[in-house]
Amino acid sequence: MQVSRRQFFKICAGGMAGTTAAALGFAPATALAETRQYKLLRTRETRNTCTYCSVGCGLLMYSLGDGAKNAKASIFHIEGDPDHPVNRGALCPKGAGLVDFIHSESRLKFPNIARQAPINGSKSVGTKRSIASPS
Asked: Which residues in the chain land under pLDDT 70?
């Protein structure tokens, strides 16, 4: 089939007009919702090392508190430190679950000494007494 120059331009113009007409009305609607504030915006970032195993991965812990004298900041997010040479931002499942470990009800917060009978459980004592105790 022989196509002249004029016919070639007609075909190209028709194809361009067809694709333009087909694209009308099919553009996705623009989103009118606002973007939310980043949840770590007003937080305090603390670098630490995970002590769960002997690897020593780097952690970034984010806490939220007003810095008042008698108020404690609460840690609400933990992630791997991307600048740490050991883990480069990745955490194992134990390290990823550190937030749950910190806020656990059964977490020991003071030194304990086990009593003679296992039924009685353990007794909370001070640090000096637990160091001085042989067992």
From this structure: 25-29, 31-38, 66-70, 114-126, 130, 133-135
* Per-residue pLDDT reduced to its tens digit, 95-123: 888 888 888 887 777 777 766 555 555 66
- Is residue 57 in a domain? no
CA distance 135 to 127: 14
The rounded distance, in Å, linking the Cα atoms of 44 and 62 is 6
**Nearest Cα to Cα of residue 78 among 58, 99, 101, 108:** 99
Examine residue 126 and state whether it is found in any structural domain, yes or no: yes
Query: Rounded CA gap, 116 and 112, in Å?
Result: 13
Q: In what order do the strands lie in the sheet with 44-49?
A: 44-49, 58-64, 74-80
